[in-house]
């Protein structure tokens, strides 16, 4: 095999491993109760909302600080 052919085969091997991991994750999600998935999504939504709020506060603080420095 040439070096290029070996690289292609290695990439296909990595792709196969990634697809196997994805398949296992999907199978795990498919067997989980819907209520458990919804609870996990609600928790994720709360955490995302908190991060967004903190980000907005940080941006507001930076903008306010720059305005005060400009004055």
Automatic annotation (TrEMBL):
UniProt keyword terms in alphabetical order: Cell cycle, Cell division, Centromere, Chromosome, Chromosome partition, Cytoplasm, Cytoskeleton, Kinetochore, Microtubule, Mitosis, Nucleus
InterPro entries membership: DASH_Dad3
GO BP: attachment of spindle microtubules to kinetochore; cell division
Keyword Chaperone tagged: no
Pfam families registered for this protein in UniProt: DASH_Dad3
GO cellular component: DASH complex; microtubule; mitotic spindle
GO molecular function terms listed in the Swiss-Prot or TrEMBL record: microtubule plus-end binding
Compartmental location: Chromosome, Centromere, Kinetochore; Cytoplasm, Cytoskeleton, Spindle; Nucleus
Family label: Belongs to the DASH complex DAD3 family.
Protein name: DASH complex subunit DAD3
Lineage of the species this protein comes from: Eukaryota, Fungi, Dikarya, Ascomycota, Pezizomycotina
């Amino acid at each position: 095999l040439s070096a290029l052919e070996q690289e292609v085969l290695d990439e296909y091997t990595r792709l196969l491993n990634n697809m196997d991991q994805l398949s296992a994750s999907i199978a795990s999600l498919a067997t989980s109760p819907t209520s458990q998935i919804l609870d996990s999504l609600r928790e994720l939504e709360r955490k995302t909302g908190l991060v967004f709020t903190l980000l907005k506060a940080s941006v507001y603080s930076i903008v306010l600080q720059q305005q005060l420095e400009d004055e």
